[in-house]
Every structure is written in structure tokens, then in C-alpha cells.
Write a structure and sequence with these properties.
The structure is a single chain. The protein is about 70% helix and about 0% strand. By secondary structure, it is mostly helical. The chain has one domain. Helix 2 runs parallel beside helix 11 and helix 6 runs antiparallel to helix 7. The longest helix has 30 residues.
Length: about 300
Amino acid sequence: MEHTPTQLQIWLLAARPKTLPAAAAPVIVGTAVAVSEGVFSFGPALAALLGALLLQIGANLANDVFDFKKGADATGRLGPLRVTQAGLLSPGQVMAGMWLTFGLAALVGLYLVVVGGWPIVAIGILSIISAIAYTGGPFPLGYNGLGDLFVFIFFGLVAVCGTYYVQAGTVSAAAFWAAVPMCLLSTAILVVNNLRDVDTDRAVGKKTLAVRLGARGAQVEYLLLLGFSYAIPPLMWLMSVSTPGAMLAWLSLPLVGPLAQSIMRQKGRPLNQALAGTARLELAYGFLFSVGVMIF
């Protein structure tokens, strides 16, 4: 007998929980830097984490419904199931879920505005607009080769520096540099996603950076992103921005080899494993980096 998913299971599928490490890791790193510099504050740190998770879920719902409306999921999707495309939820239901999620994120943001002032208003508004504009609106970022830049800014710089800012009221050099590997690894996750879909995206006119660069160019981009991310901890140490503890992130290096091989040798649906693996790499890197800067 075929199993019929419950509404809760469908909404969990729509939320795409496997993507949430990309939202959590930068907040963990920003908080770890705050701890290491003696400016940690529990309430703002927790709110930053909750807000980041809600923004990620809202962006996932937006991508689900807007890709469906634009026809990007109509031709043999290779990635995880999309609930709108599969008919599990209507476009209206997913849109309502998207606005509810962004509304909850805005409520969390109100607390952070009290803590951090007007810069948090700007960050919150820009984050929600950009999450929608990634696949929605008249000039969707993801369809015009700007998705990588969007992820670099919002899932790295904004997430880490914003988390630090709501606790310290400023952004230190260590917080800025700690954001860079999170920028790079978050972008690497998107690169795998777009490399997997390069042929189907090209067929529907979705001009991601992977489509523009070609498969080989996207593979090189991925390797460079990972390589530069591991160059940051020793650079921070040499610049006296951080202690040698940041080098603990290098303990995640054994995860890199299998991912690099997968990226260079596989195509299409098998890259879903590399996609999940890159998300795990970011989480492992962020956790190890955080432990290192806090205890050394």
C-alpha cells in the first residue's frame, strides 16, 4: 500500500531541513567569536539563530513556489522533491507558508531591533526581499547568475557579522574574517546545486553562474571556494586577528577529498550526495572553528 504523507510531513518536506546547517553554521561562528572576545549575550544569540533558520525556511518555500510558477521544475527535476511541483501543496498554500515564516522572522527581528537598533531593520528588510528576489520578481537573482553573490553576502557576511553585532554593538576584525569561510562554504553548497542542474536549468533559460561558466567552470569554482576557506584560519593567525585555535577547522579536511572527487566525476542526480556532504562540511568546519576560537 502506498504511504500518504501527513500534512506535517509535507510541510517538513517543503521546509527542507537538510538545508538548515547552512543557516545555523554562520550564527554559531559569529557567536563563538563573541564568546572569545567576551561580548557574548545569550538572548540576541538565540534570536539570531532562530531568525536565520526562519529566513532559510522562508527562502526554501519561496524557491519552491516561484520555480514552479516560472516552469523551472517542469522538466525532469534532479534535486529533492518540490511540494508544489508534486502537487502535495498548492501554490497558494506555499505562498501563505512563506509569508507566515517571514512574518515570524520579522517578529524575532523586532527583538533584535531593540537590541541592535536601526541597522537590524535594514538587514532584516534586505534579507527578506533578497530571499524572495532569489527566484521571484521581475529580475530573479538565481536566474541571472547572481545567486552565488546573494549567498556569499547573506549566508556569510550578514549572518556572521550580524550575529556578532547584536551581541557586541559593533563588528570586530575577527568577526569579519570569520565570516569569510562561511561565505565561501555556503556558496559552495549552491554551486553543487547548480552544477547538478546545469543541463535542466539551461533548457528552461535559468542562467545560473554554473550555466554561464559551464560544468567545468562550476567545478573549478567549487574547488577554489573550498581551498580559500581553509586558507582563512592561518591567515587570521598570521594577522593576529585570531588565536591558533582557528586552525582547528582544518580537522574537517578529510571530508574535502571525497567531495572534490564527487564534484569532478559525477553529474546529475548523484550530486545530491555531494550537496548534502557540502552542507555537512560547512557545519563541521564551523563547529571546529568555533570550538577552536573559544578554548584557545
